[in-house]
Design brief:
Layout (H helix, E strand, L loop, with lengths): L6 H6 L6 E5 L3 H7 L5 E4 L3 H4 L11 H14 L5 E4 L8 H14 L4 E5 L5 H8 L5 E6 L5 H4 L9 H16 L4 E5 L3 H10 L4 E4 L7 E4 L1 H4 L17 H17 L11
Helix pairs in contact: 2-4, 5-6, 8-9
This protein binds 3-methyl-2-oxobutanoic acid (KIV) and sodium ion.
Keywords: Cytoplasm, Magnesium, Metal-binding, Pantothenate biosynthesis, Transferase
Pathway: Cofactor biosynthesis; (R)-pantothenate biosynthesis; (R)-pantoate from 3-methyl-2-oxobutanoate: step 1/2
GO molecular function: 3-methyl-2-oxobutanoate hydroxymethyltransferase activity; magnesium ion binding
Amino acid sequence: DFEKMNVTKIKNSKNNKKLTMITAYDALFAKLFEEVADMILVGDSLNMSFAGMPDTLSATLDQMIYHTKAVCKGAPKAFVILDMPFGTYINENQALENAVKVYQETNAAAVKIEGGEDRADIIKHLTSNSVAVMGHIGLMPQYVRSEGGYKVRGKTQEDTEQLIRDAIAVEKAGAFAIVVEGVMSDAALKITEAVNIPIIGIGAGNVTDGQVLVWSDMLGFFEDFKPKFVRHYLNGAQLVKESVNQYRSDVQDSSFPSKDEEY
Ligand code: KIV
Ligand code: NA
């Protein structure tokens, strides 16, 4: 029952159907997710899980474009969103130039931008120039150095009110949906009720209009630690290690390749 998504269908999903989003960084996995997920995010989280860096800040637009091309090739029917990396949307003109480059060089359907009230003008400039924008508020990984770490948001009434203002500002700026990351679930509910566009949660409880997870987290390939909000649907790391160990032992005792596996 796969149905190709567009911004209208995504907006109409609010109060109707929960949306499923997953990240992908390459054609192989994108193809596996293509007809299952409503949206595929080429997240700048690839700077950690693909490139091995400690945070998302050093991801470049060319890197994001390279991975987005691969994802779009592997999953041509998917609604693909590219994360605009840190420093590529610091003012309206630069943001639009970079978003136009994304549309010219990839088949991404939309771009995602971190920021609330502080970035509303930039989002407005993009949407009024026909770029589809997904917002991202709450815990924003691109703010990690300026905030001094990753902090769960919405713990006080004051912060919750700020998050609601952020969501409303992003909606008014023309975004078609908003990722809400790392927010207390009671605050996430208030945010979800405050806007008419879908709220896609991660670490924000089950009260939002949909969920997003990083593929390597949900499939258990990332072993260093498991954030509270992640559910492992596969023990990827363990399965891979067992398989590669088996391969080595088959090589060592010459049971691989067998007669059936030779020319
Ligand atoms: O980069 C990313 O993967 C993201 C999601 C966690 C929302 O922004
Ligand atoms: Na991101």
